[in-house]
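**Fold in C-alpha cells:**
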Amino acid sequence: MDKNFIEDFITHLEKERQMNPGSLTDYKNMIVHSIIENKSMDEQFAWSQKQAYIAFGFMLFAAAELHVDACPMEGFIGHKVDELLSTAHDYSTVAILALGYRDERDPYAHYIKVRTPHNQLVIKE
C-alpha cells in the first residue's frame, strides 16, 4: 500500500458515499501518517498480513454459511506461488484458501469431526 493507493481509496469512498471531494482529507492524512510514514516496510508488510487474515476469516465464515468446504493453507513458498500466479501487482501471497465440495467417495469426508472440547478451549476465570 502506498500514498496513491490510499488516495484512490479515499476518492472512491467519498464518491460512493456522495461526499464532497476532500471531505475525508483528515482521515486520509491519518492513514498516511499511521501506516505509511510511521512504519518501516517490514512493519507495513506485517500490518498488511494481519489485514489479509481478517478478510481470510470472513471468507472461511462465508464458506461455512454456504456449506462450501474450505481448507486454509500456509507452509508454502510464497514467492514461488507469486511466480506461478504471475501477479501483475506488487503483491505477496501470505495464505491460500481452497474452496469447493468434497468428493463423496472420499472416505475421509465421512469421518466424524473431532474438535477440542469447549471446556478446554474456553477458560473462565
